[in-house]
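@channel sequence for tomorrow's demo:
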Amino acid sequence: MQIHVVVAPVFATSCCVVVEGDDCVVVDAGAGVAAQVALLVQEHGWTVRAVLATHGHVDHTWDAAELCERYDVPLRVHAADAYRVADPFGTLGLDPALPGVGGALRQALAGMGLRPEDYRAPAVVPFDAAGDDGAGTLVAGDVRLRVQHAPGHTEGSTLFLTDEVVLAGDVLFAGSVGRTDLPGGDPATMRATLHDVVARLDPALAVVPGHGPTTTVGQELATNPFLG
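structure tokens (generated this afternoon):
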């Protein structure tokens, strides 16, 4: 299995193209990644089997509709976050015209000639902890990813795992963890996720966070102050 990372120009979201054989899935299609992802897919002759999101925040889903339509596939997101996809700004409680997260997002989008009203919602096929096979695995062509519900940043935040890598979304970063002060975030739930889910992962796993540099589970267990 291969993982190719395309960094979105808005909020530097890490979009991952996960490849098995000739099939692939796209994880976290942030704003501005669609053209680069499409070029990568075309160059290698891959077949896109699904677009996935680690959670429903708009910086992880902005280009999902474009890619879903291009490849005639759905967006897969945890059922607890599916409601966010249709109205990402409203479900965040953001007025994108005001300062703060909303204003920063508007400014980042404006730098690319985009506006919040340009957002299009893709068709969604939600999943839950049972995955597609009843045993916690999402299946998309030849690509199989284990899913681990990891709420706290949002209600439906999810880790996607291979034998060697965890795609952590905004649950775990190098030296930090996801914020819990936006609607749907919960500090107590995040602490439980870090203790009961993240701390029990194989320390040898590489971590590709939703933003920022890669790390390993072992490195974060040893040095991340939120995992002490």
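heads up for whoever presents: The mean pLDDT is 92.
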